Structures are given as C-alpha cells and as structure tokens.
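@channel sequence for tomorrow's demo:
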Amino acid sequence: MNQDKGRQEDTKETLDKYSIEINNIIVDVVIETDPQEAVPLYEVSIANISPTTKIILEKIRQEFVSRMNMTDLEQFETAGESANVREQFKKEIRELITKYFPHTDEKTLNMLVNYLLEENLGLGKIEILLKDAGLEEIVVNNHTEPVWVYHRKHGWLKTNILIPSEARIRHFSTMIGRDVGKEITALNPLMDAHLTTGDRVNATLSPISNKGNTITIRKFAEDPWTITKFIKQNTISIEAAAFIWLAIQNELSILISGGTGSGKTSMLNVVANFFPPNQRIISIEDTRELTLPGNLHWVPMETRLPNPEGKGGVTMLDLLVNSLRMRPDRIIVGEIRRREEAEVLLEAMHTGHSVYATIHANNADEVVTRLTNPPIDIPKQMVSSLSLIIVQNRNRRTGKRRTLQIAEILPEGDPKVLLRYNAQKDVIERIAQSDVVMDRLQLYTGMSREEIEFDLKQKVQILKWLTRKNAESVDEIGLHVAKYYTGRLVLD
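structure tokens (generated this afternoon):
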C-alpha cells in the first residue's frame, strides 16, 4: 500500500516554485501536477514558522478569541474605527505571544502578531493569495472545496486553502463591503465592491448560490501588462504592435473587444503605452484597473454605485459627459454597455477627441452587430467614426491569450479584417491591405504610403530594441516612448 502511494507521489511534477514575503512571514508556493487531480495544485506553506510554533499559535488564537467578544467587535468594526480595533487586537495578541514565547526578539514577535492578526481580522490565508503578483483571480465557491486561483502563467489551479465555514465566508464578504460602504444581506445577497488595494470583489450568499456563499476577487495588476510583455508572451506580433502604435500616434480611435478574461483591459493598458506625454488623458472605469505611465497627463475617474437609499450614484455616462468639459485630448472608457455611452463616445470622436474603449464581442463582425443592435442600437453609419477594432481571445483549453483580429471600419460601417491570428502556426498573419486607415493617415499627416511604411519599419525596430532591452515596466516604456516623440530616443 505504501509502495503504491510512493509511486503515485513520484509521478507528481513541479511546474513552478517561488516565495512571497508578507509582513516578514515567508510563504513558499509550489505549483505541481498530481495524477489524482484534474488540474494542477497551488500549495502554500509558511516557511519560517515551524509546525510546533503553529500549534502554539493556534492555542494562542483560541485563548484570544475566548478573551474577546468577536461578535461585538465585528459589529463595532466600521470603516472609520477599524484601525482602532486593529490596535486593540494587536495589543491583546502581543501580550499572549509574550506569555508563551517570553524570549522572542522584536522582529519575530511582530511577525507572529501579524500572522495572528490576519487569521482573526483579515481575510485569513486569502491575504497570502492577494500578495501573489502571478495571480489574476481568487475564487471561493463554498467552505467544502478548496479556494481556486487563476494564475497568469498556469491558468486555473486548486489551492490547499480551505475556508472553515460558510459563516466565515459571509463574514469576509461583510467585512469587505463595510470598508467601502456596501452591504450584503439575505435581502441583498449580491454585492459588487472592491478592496482598498483596488482589487475587484463580487460576493453572493446562499441559497442564491446553491452550494454555498461565494467570493470572487479579480486582482488589480500591481505589475500591469505592457507592450513588451505582450510581445514576449506572443500575445501580439511586433508588426501588429507597430501598426497599432502608428494609429495611436495619429489619434485614430480604437475599440478593443473580446470575451470575459480575454485580455481586453490588458490590451487597453498596452495601447496606453503609446500615448504622447503632451496630451491630457481622461480614463473612466467602474473599478480602477488601468495603470498608465507616470509621465503622462492622466486623470483617472471611477464610477460609484448609489447607497442603500438609492442616492449618490455616479454612472459611466455621468463621467463621460463630464469628461468632455475637462479639455481631454484622449478619452479611455473601461467598457461600453449602453446606447447613451456609445452615442456620447461617437460624438466625442466627431468633435476631435481620440477615444479608446472595450466591448464584449468575440470578433470584429460581432462588434458591429453589438453596436448596431439593442441595447446599444446606434446607426451603422456612425460606426465608421471608429478607425480600428482589436479583438482579443483566450483559448480556455491552453489559457493562451492572443490578439485574434485587427480590423478597420469601412465607410458604410462594416469591418475589414487586416490581420488575423493563425491558431495552427500560433502567429498573426496579414490577410488584407489597409485602405481606410492608410487614407486617413495620408490625409492627416501628409505622408505618402511609402513614408508611412518607413515609419512602421522604424517602430518595428524600436519595439525590437525595447524587447531586447527587457524594458517591461509601464514607466520605463513610457519614458522611451516620450523620448521618441521628442526626437531624443537613441537606440544603443
């Protein structure tokens, strides 16, 4: 029996291994395949706390809980008083740890205090997952199955973290909502909120979610996607990126489409890498997800849901209309959902603003269909105000994200696909020459087609250089692009 078990363990394969430091606590992460599991496992273990110490810490935790009236404190812990409650808890925990570990140095003492604080006041071991920059999504389905995560590199993974009870999941949801003035109750069992770090949270309560209470956290990208990362990941080709850059430099409006999780917002962030530093940019989102280079003249704005009395809400349309009074050169919109938003955006294009937005649609034809049918339902001729559609796609089997299509919009409002992804070869291929975009560029710039092609080749060389140079941060790329626009970029 033991031999069989040994053979099974031998077949495990480690896919990745790294460490995370959280308040001096070292957490080891191992991602491995297991023949008994359908998906790889994401396993966390705290490296600098021994098993014996953990047993004592659990005893301290139980003594701490018995000392404090947790229910009263949970009700007392409002957004304005949580810092005071935390300090009160910290003092109590510190006394207990000193009692059991009298000779502990200050650094270790602080680490153990932080460990117990997160176990009791924070989101428990979910806090570990929030600190992993490689994760995009954290999902709690109920207390009987492990927490799931979506990893940038490895896709969906099952963790070794379990939430002890449905009540604890509900408490986490209540705590998240309370910090941002939201509530989740039996009467209001659905909640959209965000953490103070910007991570987006959706929560549901049973029996609306049949198997138990759920929490879905979409993490705010601490290290956002940039054009060089897209190129290295083969999400987009250098030639396609250069074409997009040319369009952005010359203030052509772009709509980015794709399914859920296809990388629409990531592409929107990448597109912003190419903005010139001497223009004013207004971004409008439901939840902040964009991170633009620090040298840009950028004003980020965010919608607000109404309070429980139905007052104080600020919609995307409100911000969009207001942004036109803020002298923007470029407007970025998180997502178009309604007719009014689309009409204001198209009006902005007609009045000389460059607009960049996302929409849910799986290909260029679907984008036009969505725009010209309910609920958006704008006249097809108005769609021609757009210059380009970029379609993002995620292969759910492999987890790969790719630019599926780049299309221009013809005068009658139909899309014409210029570049298309070849899944068999895993490359983006040119399938047609541009007419509309090239004509607009010639009109706006006065350049001939030959000069435009030469400009494209220059941009290809710069993108190759940036990729070789491993320039991956938003600010570093923003600096090089700014130098390009001011004629100070020197390729070494």
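heads up for whoever presents: The CA atoms of residues 27 and 46 lie 4 Å apart.
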